[in-house]
Amino acid sequence: MRYPIVLRASLPCLNLGRGFENLSETSRVRVLVLDLFLLASLVLGGDVNAQQGLSSGRIVPAPKQAAGEGNVAQTLLLLVRCNPELTAEQIRETLQFGSAAAGCEVSQIVVREVAPHTLDEVESVLRLIDRPEGGEVNIEELQLSRRPAVHTIWDIKLSKAPEETIESFDVALQKIGSSADSAPQWKTYRPVVPEAANLESGSFVAVSLRNGRYEFYPPPGEMPTEFRVSIIGEDGSKREVTGKFPQLDRCFLIQMVNFRGDRARLFEVVRNPAEVPNPFSDIKERSNTAVVFGNIRGSTAVVGETLDGLELVVSVPGVPGRAPARVWMLFPLTAERLAQEEANLKGLEQWTKLPEEIRRRAVKSTDPQVPIIDSEEPRWYELVPAGSGFEQRIKLVTKPEDFPKLRQRFPRIYRILVWEFEGGGGRAPISVDGGRRYRSEELNSWGRLLEAYIR
Q1: What is the C-alpha to C-alpha distance for residues 195 and 173, in angstroms, rounded to an integer?
Q2: β-pairing verdict for 142-146 and 136-138
């Protein structure tokens, strides 16, 4: 019996934008349309081909850019499929070499690994083909398949359970990014209960002995290549099953921020092994494709913070069952300043005075834009309606070199949010979180966002 891999996510897991709340409310429709969408296959050393996907050895020229287009800063998004041994740093290095050799400018290159099925879904839609269902090994005694996730998890099904169980699981592991001819290291794993799993060093987890289900979590940064399974029966008999792990491609979403230059020249250079260390084998630019992300009264609309160049893009949800006109955000706050501001809010005699108090310290559209790194006091920022939530862009620094200084000044950062109603009777804060008129919280993604830009 075959146990197919279940794909739990499709294109929206890219988290690139937000959409519309209701098709009939056209005034609230806001979509993100990408004017450039790339699909690429990457090879290491020129003779190791990606396992699946678009790579066919055929060069597809990029459409000619309009006059002056190269002088306009834009964000290039690339979906890249590569060999399992290639690292994010090697991909970034190739694009840095290629940009310099092509005479292009880019302020940041952010490389983020995504689940392989993300590219499978996109490719199947764009090329009108069936989605591949690879990544399985089927032997008479057991079935081994990779789960569709960014972090590698292997599901193992023993065919003769519960009469048989797995006593030990030996795996040959190879460092990702190491030389192809370097010898793998064998390591023995014994089944543990889920609570005893150590994902930092790798674990072999017994999920259900009765159903013969196990999970293998390889150590981070290491790739399994072969396995030996020691199986023991109820009568004490033992036998061994051996095999090889299917070598699946790694997939990355790459963001080239504030790109200026000739895309065609860049794509030509990154395919040339004489100019870049790990050349692309194939590039297909989908310039006639618009990618739109929408939300039609979805309860899991993507919200949160992202970095776009030198700006922080803030996105917060609305309040269920309420109709706020806007959201106010007091930002940036340290932990000490947060406590002080909360004490000031609690000291208000009447909550109806809060809108007036907010506007006294709010950033106005006519104010000069002062980056957060240069701000002396926190200010109230107005988040405006966008799709099913509220958004605003806040400038953090004036140049990329200032990001380390920003992290030093704000290693952790906090904010206060106020959802504001406006009607015929005036303005009033909306109650949230058990009757409170505001929400105070830490931006948990702050460190991760800055780290991606500081590397």
Answers
A1: 24
A2: antiparallel
Average pLDDT, the chain: 78
Nearest-angstrom CA–CA distance, 39 and 284: 5
How does pLDDT run across 258-277, given as a tens digit for each residue? Answer: 888 998 899 999 999 999 98
- For the CA atoms of 316, 322, 328, 333, the dihedral, rounded to the nearest 10 degrees, stands at -60
Pairing label, strands 38-42, 74-82: parallel
Asked if residue 310 lies in contact with residue 396, where contact means CB atoms within 8 angstroms, the answer is: yes
Looking up tokens 């959409």 gives: 19
What are the boundaries of each domain within the chain? 11-114+250-285, 136-244, 304-454
Cβ contact 241:56 at 8 Å: no
Q: CA–CA separation, 223 vs 138, rounded Å?
A: 20
Q: Around 112, how many Cα atoms within 13 Å sit in the side-chain half-sphere?
A: 19
Instruction: Write down the pLDDT at residue 149.
Output: 58
pLDDT digits (tens, 9 = 90+) for 354-398: 999 999 999 987 788 889 999 889 999 999 988 778 999 999 998
Low-confidence ranges of the chain (pLDDT < 50): 1-37, 43-63, 67
Pair 406, 450: CB distance under 8 Å: yes
Q: Rounded to whole angstroms, how far apart are CA atoms 448 and 432?
A: 27
Fold of the 136-244 domain: Immunoglobulin-like (2.60.40)
H or E element that contains 157: strand 154-158
Residues belonging to the chain: 455
